[in-house]
Design goal:
394 residues; Alpha-Beta Plaits; single chain; 6-stranded mixed sheet; Alkaline Phosphatase, subunit A
C-alpha cells in the first residue's frame, strides 16, 4: 500500500506541441526535442524512468529497452499555457476561461491607483523579458526609486526592484497592494516580486521571488488529501501557486538544487501524504531566457541527483515526475509554449514498463494521487485515475 506520494514538477519541460498549439502561436514547439537537437543530453536516469519512451517524445531518440516504471504524456483541457492553469489542472481543476492578459500593458487608471497606493512611481508597464527590462530600466529605477512593472504572455503583474533601493520587505508589501487592486475588471492571475541586486557590476535577480496568486475556485487534490488527515508538504512555489489552499506545510527554495535537497529531507521524515515540489529554474532561468544549453545542463544536474531521491524513498513511497506546460528554448519570443506534459512514475510498488500513452488531461495525475492517498474515498472534479494500471497490488 502506498502511504506517500512525491510529485516533482519539472517546470516547463514540455514533450511536444498540443493539437491546438498553433492557436497560441506555438506550432511545432517541442521543449525536450529541441533541446536534444542542439545539446547532447546525458540523462540516463530520466531515460531509464521512461522519458524517451513517452509517445513522440524527442522523436524516440532517448528511448530505452525496458523502463523501470510507468510513463506517458498528458493533454491540457484548460485554456492557456501558464503556470497556475497547468498546476491547477494537474490538481483537478479545468480553467475554461483563461486568465486575462495585458500584452499592451495595464490600464492607465489601474497604474495611477497602483502608484498612489505604493507611494512611488513606476517604470515600464509593458511586456518584456525580466532580465532584459532590469538592464533597460535599472539605472533609472535606481536613480528615481520608481519600481519596474512588466508583464508577459501570461496573466502576470511583475514588479522588479533593486533591494538596495526598495528593501525586500517593502517590495513584498508593494506586491500585496498590487494584488488587492488586480481584481474584478482588472483580474490578473499572479503578482510576482522580482528582486535583484548588482553583483560584480551586473544586475542579477535574487532567489527571493515571491508569487501572489488567486485562490483555486474549488477543491483540488491538495484539499482532498489534507481533509483526509494527511500531510500536504509544498516545496518551492507550490504554496504560492495554490495561495496556501489545502497545504499543511510549506518551505521556500533557493533554486532547483535546493528544491531537490528539501525534497530529500522531506522524504527522510515519517508521515503519510503528499510531497509536492516545483523546480522552477528550468522555466525561469532557461526556458524564458531561450538558453538551450543552460536548460540541457540543468536537466543533467537534476538527473545526477535522482539516485539520492530513489535512495530516500521508502517501500511505500511513490514518485511522480511531471511538467506543467512547455517553454521551448528554441522557440521565438520568451514565453511558455502550449505542449503535452510528461508523466513518469516509479517506486517499489510500481509496475515496470507501463506505457500510459497519451491521456486526455493533466488532471489524471491529481486523480491518481488522490485515489491512492484517500484509498478511493475522494475524487478530483476532473481526471481519471491510472492507479490500477501502475501499482502491483492493483
Amino acid at each position: 500500500m502506498i502511504k506517500r506520494v512525491t510529485v516533482i514538477v519539472l517546470d516547463s519541460l514540455g514533450v511536444g506541441a498540443l493539437s491546438d498549439a498553433a492557436a497560441y502561436g506555438d506550432a511545432g514547439a517541442d521543449t525536450l526535442g529541441h533541446i536534444l537537437d542542439h545539446y547532447p543530453l546525458d540523462i540516463l536516469r530520466l531515460r531509464t524512468m521512461g522519458l524517451g519512451n513517452i509517445e513522440n517524445a524527442a522523436g524516440g531518440r532517448l528511448a530505452v529497452g525496458r523502463p523501470i516504471g510507468a510513463y506517458g504524456r498528458f493533454e491540457e483541457q484548460s485554456s492557456g499555457k501558464d503556470t497556475i492553469t497547468g498546476h491547477w489542472e494537474i490538481a483537478g481543476i479545468c480553467t475554461q476561461t483563461p486568465f486575462q492578459t495585458y500584452p499592451d500593458g495595464f490600464p492607465a487608471e489601474l497604474m495611477e491607483a497602483f502608484s498612489q497606493a505604493i507611494g512611488r512611481g513606476y517604470l515600464g508597464n509593458y511586456a518584456a523579458s525580466g532580465t532584459e527590462i532590469i538592464e533597460t530600466l535599472g539605472a533609472e529605477h535606481e536613480k528615481t526609486g520608481k519600481v519596474i512593472v512588466y508583464t508577459s504572455a501570461d496573466s502576470v503583474f511583475q514588479i522588479a526592484a533593486n533591494t538596495d533601493v526598495v528593501p525586500l520587505a517593502e517590495l513584498y508589501e508593494i506586491c500585496e497592494k498590487a494584488r488587492a487592486l488586480l481584481t474584478g475588471k482588472y483580474a490578473c492571475g499572479r503578482v510576482i516580486a522580482r528582486p535583484y541586486v548588482i553583483k560584480d557590476g551586473k544586475r542579477t535577480r535574487t532567489p527571493d521571488r515571491r508569487d501572489y496568486a488567486v485562490s483555486p475556485p474549488e477543491d483540488t487534490m491538495l484539499d482532498l488529501i489534507s481533509r483526509a488527515g494527511k500531510t500536504v508538504y509544498a516545496i518551492g512555489k507550490i504554496n504560492d501557486i495554490f495561495n496556501g489552499q489545502g497545504i499543511t506545510r510549506s518551505v521556500h527554495t533557493e533554486d532547483n538544487d535546493d528544491g531537490v535537497t528539501k525534497t530529500i529531507e522531506a522524504l527522510g521524515e515519517d508521515f503519510e501524504g503528499l510531497i509536492f515540489t516545483n523546480l522552477v529554474d528550468f522555466d525561469s532561468k532557461y526556458g524564458h531566457r531561450r538558453d538551450v544549453a543552460g536548460y540541457g545542463k540543468a536537466l543533467e544536474e537534476f538527473d545526477k541527483r535522482l539516485p539520492e531521491i530513489f535512495m530516500a524513498m521508502k517501500p511505500d513511497d511513490l514518485l511522480i515526475l511531471c511538467s506543467d506546460h512547455g517553454n521551448d528554448p528554441a522557440h521565438t519570443g520568451w514565453d511558455h509554449t502550449r505542449e503535452h506534459i510528461l508523466g513518469l512514475a516509479v517506486g517499489k510498488q510500481v509496475k515496470t514498463d507501463v506505457n500510459l500513452g497519451t491521456r486526455k488531461s493533466f488532471a489524471d495525475i491529481g486523480a491518481t494521487v488522490t485515489d491512492i492517498l484517500t484509498d478511493g474515498k475522494a475524487k478530483t472534479a476532473i481526471g481519471e485515475s491510472f492507479r490500477s494500471l501502475i501499482l502491483t497490488d492493483d
